[in-house]
Amino acid sequence: MIKIQNLSSKTFSKFGLVLEQADKKKVFSVLTGDKTAKGWRIGYLIFHPAPVDSLERHPGSMETFEPVSGATVILVAEQGSPDKIEAFLLDKPVCVAKNVWHGVRVLSEKAEIKITENYEVESVIHKLKKPIDAVFV
């Protein structure tokens, strides 16, 4: 069983950034960027509940996951340990670092997530030994 954790800058730090203002007095701050990227794209994903049978990582691109509606858990693992998965309730936007394994599991009838990543993205897939499904206790 994988425990679902709350997102915070501290708990998510080895996987990327929680996209939130550190200084609440500022109106605008650049939170992250990649000077080597050549363009970027915005995607919009609509998910329905289904077990997660694989994770993916992107060697050349960070990727944001920005919840729009529904309830979602983001699954993440460090590059060298794709089966050592941690789960976080995706209730605020995050930026997953390059090479971090990731996937999402929808907890509601439907969820919508905005994605931002490099324009061209290489994906590496890791098939899980056993699919991950949500169990409510």
Radius of gyration: 15 Å
The end-to-end span amounts to: 11 Å
User: How many independent structural domains?
Assistant: 1
Overall 3D form? globular
Please give the count of helices.
Answer: 1
Q: How many strand units?
A: 11
Low-confidence stretches: none
CATH superfamily: Ureidoglycolate hydrolase
Describe the structure.
- It is a single chain.
- With 137 residues, the protein is mostly beta strands.
- It has one domain (4-20, 41-130): Jelly Rolls, CATH 2.60.120.480.
- The chain contains 1 helix and 11 strands.
- The protein has one helix at residues 9-12; strands spanning 4-5, 16-18, 40-47, 52-57, 63-69, 72-77, 86-89, 94-96, 101-106, 111-118, 124-132.
- The strands form 3 sheets. Strands 2-8-5-10-3 form a 5-stranded antiparallel β-sheet, with no helix packed on it. Strands 1-7-6-9 form a 4-stranded mixed β-sheet, with no helix packed on it.
- The longest helix has 4 residues, at 9-12.
- The radius of gyration is 15 Å and the shape is globular.
- The protein starts with a strand and ends in a 5-residue tail after the last strand.
- The mean pLDDT is 93.
Structure summarized in a few sentences:
With 137 residues, the chain is mainly β. Helix content is 3%, strand content 45%. It has a single domain (4-20, 41-130), classed as Ureidoglycolate hydrolase (Jelly Rolls).
Annotate the secondary structure layout.
Layout lengths: L3 E2 L3 H4 L3 E3 L21 E8 L4 E6 L5 E7 L2 E6 L8 E4 L4 E3 L4 E6 L4 E8 L5 E9 L5
Parallel strand pairs: 1-7
Antiparallel strand pairs: 2-8, 3-10, 4-11, 5-8, 5-10, 6-7, 6-9
